[in-house]
Amino acid sequence: MRYLPLTSEDRAAMLNTIGAASVDDFYQDVPESARLNGTIEGLPDHQGELAVERHLARLAAKNTTASEVPFFVGAGAYKHHVPASVDMIIQRSEFLTTYTPYQPEIAQGTLQTLFEFQTQVAAMTAMDVANASMYDGSTACAEAAVMACRVTRRKKVVLSGGLHPHYAAATRLLCEAQGIEVVELPPAIDGELELANHVDDATACVIGQSPNVFGTVTDLSPVADAAHEKKALLVSVFTEAVSLGLVTPPGEMGADIAVGEGQSIGNPLTFGGPYVGLFACTQKLVRQMPGRLCGETVDADGKRGFVLTLSTREQHIRRDKATSNICTNSGLCALAFTAHMTLLGGTGLEQLASLNHEAACDLADALAAVPGVEILTPRFFNEFAFRTPVDAEAVLAMLEERGVLGGIRASRLLPHDGLGDVIIAAATECTTQDDIAAYAAALKEVI
Amino acid sequence: MGMQSIGRPTAPFAGGISDVETVSGSKGLMQREDLIFEVGDPDKTGVDLPAAKGTKNRLGGVTRKRGSGLPGLSEPEAVRHYMRLSQKNYAIDLGLFPLGSCTMKHNPRLNEKAARMPGFADIHPLQPQRTVQGALELIDELATWLKTLTGMPAVAMSPKAGAHGELCGMLAIRQALIARGEAETRKRVLVPASAHGTNPATAIQCGFIVDEIKANERGRVDMADLKSKLETTDDIAGIMLTNPNTCGLFETDIKEIADLIHAAGGYFYCDGANFNAIVGRVRPGDLGVDAMHINLHKTFSTPHGGGGPGSGPTVLSDALAPYAPVPYVVNEGDGFHLVEEAEGEAAEAFGRMVAFHGQMGMFVRALTYMLSHGADGLQQVAEDAVLNANYIQARLKSVMTPAFDGYFMHEALFSDAFTADGIETIDIAKAMLDEGYHPMTMYFPLVVHGAMLIEPTETESKQELDRFCDMLSVIAERAAQGDETLKGAPYLAPMKRLDETQAARKPVLKWVPPEPAAVAAE
């Protein structure tokens, strides 16, 4: 077998050195009744590369890729171009096949890129500090909620009606397990400002999203003010990291914690994962942060180097007193993010954001010209909601028949909120004028 | 300095070659590389984007006031930056990476190739389900493998990593207790002192309280202590037990433990981090397990990526299966379907843990690995992993101190009892860096003093193991003799020993521009 170097002679010689008769000796502690007689049944035997590759290719061929059709699906994951060099960098064996940098003297490559990642995320969100990544945006959001409860010693969080429903679900789950009350405001396209009316003396944090799940961008400063007046925190969420090049970032709105999804920068769609959760906060909250942090220090010769630090927050040191149970994070996706950001630079990010915004404006104009369509999102970045005169699911199915993946129906995320005629559509730098024209033409045919 | 008769020095030059200073700051192939913030420029870019027309604006004034100011690099500079940094890393592709509990095995490149097929990499999680049938089929196929290998009836695929899988299992237990009307009374979770830190941290995250159980002198659960903890049972939620455990040992009494916990009205969570030792040889379902996460990035060889991403599908028993989180894939005969809401057929589900459907990129890699090995190969994986660990133990037991008598499973555990006063486990680890090896896991598990946990995995040849053992034997002898030079190691690594105390005392967590130089003369 191609991944197993031991030969039969090796095995015999090693058993001899050990003084064991066979490998069965090593399994003597297994209860008799749980010992298997021979190979597990019902699974195929080993296969060569060619056969395996064919099997996977057959499955892959059954899927419609985002690049082969006019594609407008967003709502938390976005089709962007990833530069070829980014994928080459993350396939370097030294990054791909190494572990968490617990031996910093031989892991400066990983550590320095994490330090650069943290610096970039802090600058993009306009926050003081960022950690070395979380699993994804939704789990980062849940961790932010429980962190806010630790910081304020309160047990109530308020979620906006614009928060991505999957983020709300992940947050609700973790909070309720810890006895934290979760107030979810009803879904609303322009729902973020409503948060300011729902802060009281028991509130640990309010969680608002901009751009929100309907695409609406909102200046959350009034929400921050209302929260701070009650000594509560503002958690500011984003699912489209490219928006940070153009839209008011969390730190400019008075956010105490900023969390978001970093997939859009450097990472392909991959059906929802792996992605990279971004987590940033103010300096004074840093010791309550979850996840790994990379910090600067010196070695015995006084040379600058980097190490994992403040690990007394973490489970491997503090066990039941840790700020989170997270261990593995999204290191390689964070590397893809930071490499793409290094290629873009701040100016490139702003340019990319402008292209995204412009594509979405063009799309909105084209769709608004279709009789019966009503654009619902008042202010948007690269995604917006619109109403159709007929059922959204039927519309999207008919668009699909015409080779257009026209977005997602809001009722897939929010099945019980009377949103059956609402579609959420996104455009990015990958969207062409032809794509937009094809969408508008197909939509005109089906409604 | 001693000299041979022909005049060649036999003792190392005091200070060693690492003290050679160069003008460039590089040392041979080890290139100096500053931070991108020091070498980049905000006006530089490594991408060519068309200019936006700038004629439309629907932002309603919600615009960024200050730019990020982040520097960019051209593509050649960026590639070189990361290339140089990469060479400061140790990696499994470079050599043996014997981190106990981490299962650093070879990562086949076919896995990477498959994950990059556009049909997997370029599909959106919320596309119409008709357009992603191959992806759903793959998840279903992987789920079948996991259920068959573990002998368990159900699996939750969405957990993002091992600790997230622990969370999944413990939330399923919590939901089962809610269904029984006992969630408020059954709060106590038993956790061995040897457990991974994630276990107690996870229990707390789920609102449970942790009750620690002792290890016996054989490194297994102390049954007398366990039974004393079960004298009252009406507050027992369950146990979190790693098997094979963190000492690299199979829990001999595991079935009795499962029976005791079940009789107490609790559930058995098994930490599956060490599944590599038993895959294809033992099915956790035959041991009385109710929930177990599987680290696809360990046993099934998706790469560790410098700390992630992982993937932690969690198998569930009949008792917990109804509470599995959404989403999950259902095979309806004529097609695959995603159940996305905790209602209708999923009304008992404990909820949703994460956006979308789990770590698809890791699923592709893991299934590719499983198909490559097959059921026969996976059994050989476990047997070779265990053989390699016991070989290391046999080769080193005369110069180091095995923590326990008898055979280990997939990792060999030593205490620091053999070292002279003043020499610590970390000194041995850092000396290994100079020899070109990544050290073993050190100071874990906590139940063994100065623990050294060595997991070679099955992808090492006998020649590699022999070289490793030869090397470690010499360091161990130096440690036993109290060789003070170990305290200064590493001497040859890219960096000398780093000051972690300073890093934590006054944390510097991002680059800040240097203060403008003070005006020299006033």
Please render the helix and strand layout as text.
The complex is a heterodimer of chains A (447) and B (522).
Chain A: H1 8-18, H2 49-60, H3 84-90, H4 93-96, H5 108-125, E1 129-130, H6 137-152, E2 156-159, H7 165-177, E3 181-184, E4 205-209, H8 221-229, E5 233-238, E6 257-261, E7 277-281, E8 293-298, E9 304-309, H9 315-318, H10 331-368, E10 374-375, E11 383-387, H11 392-401, E12 408-409, H12 410-413, E13 422-426, H13 433-446
Chain B: H1 36-39, H2 75-86, H3 109-115, H4 118-121, H5 133-150, E1 154-156, H6 162-179, E2 188-192, H7 198-205, E3 209-213, H8 223-229, E4 236-242, H9 254-263, E5 267-271, E6 291-293, E7 314-316, E8 328-331, E9 336-339, H10 360-396, E10 401-402, E11 412-415, H11 425-434, E12 441-442, E13 452-454, H12 462-480, H13 500-505
Parallel strand pairs in B: 2-3, 2-4, 4-5, 5-6
Antiparallel strand pairs in B: 1-7, 6-7, 8-9, 10-11, 11-13, 12-13
Helix pairs in contact in B: 3-10, 5-10, 6-7, 10-12, 11-12
Short description:
The complex is a heterodimer of chains A (447) and B (522). Chain A has 447 residues and is α/β, with parallel strands linked by helices.
